[in-house]
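REQUEST FORM: STRUCTURE PREDICTION
Request ID: SP-0412
Submitted by: Lab K.M.
Chain count: 1
Length (residues): 236
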Amino acid sequence: MGSSRLPGKPLLQLAGKPMVQWVYEAAVASGVSDRVVVATPDDEIIEACRSFGAEATLTLATHPSGTDRLAEVAEKVVADIYVNLQGDEPLIPPENVRLCADVLRDDPTAEMSSLFVVASPDEIDAPSTVKVVTDLQGNALYFSRHAIPFERNARVSPVKKHLGIYAFRRGVLQRFPTWPQSPLEIAESLEQLRFLENGVGIAMREGRPTPLSVDTAEQAAEVHNILINRQNSVVY
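STATUS: Completed
RESULT:
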């Protein structure tokens, strides 16, 4: 609820529902698990979730990152794999949730996974868009708010935009809060770098582009219109 750019945004009404409900319903629609939990430090969000039948759990308000918050939840909710969705992604495709989880289901050696899409030209140099470079096996080498790789020579592959969805095994999620914030994490303000700096591989797969996340009132209005149009669309 304390978002600096858009206070109260999890409960913004979008096409008749609070934003958190759209994210919750996408998670349910993915079919990945019969248990979907909303983690929040805010009583207002807990109450809203209960009103539309979602399970919600109250967490500390002092976590420096969303992954720290998820690690707290993992102490209460025991599972083999956890998929972490961001609460400001009401348009997230359910198939992205499935894809992220399936990476760990299909590869017992993978501890963590995430997704990317091809960055659009206007996203390449935007600090708000996180980029990722991967090795030839599809594992993350580095994440940055800067355009990577640097175009000293012509790029032979597109710039990859990181999508803010992760899947974790329980063990690596439990280790995460025991590590201090790492130098690259602090420099870039990207918590996933803490995993890389502690030797944890992140398996990356190409997902389906998410039309828009919500950080501003203008984006909220645009997402509202997209959802209204979806509700009003007719398929013949």
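NOTES: The first helix runs from residue 19 to 30.
Reviewed by: T.R.
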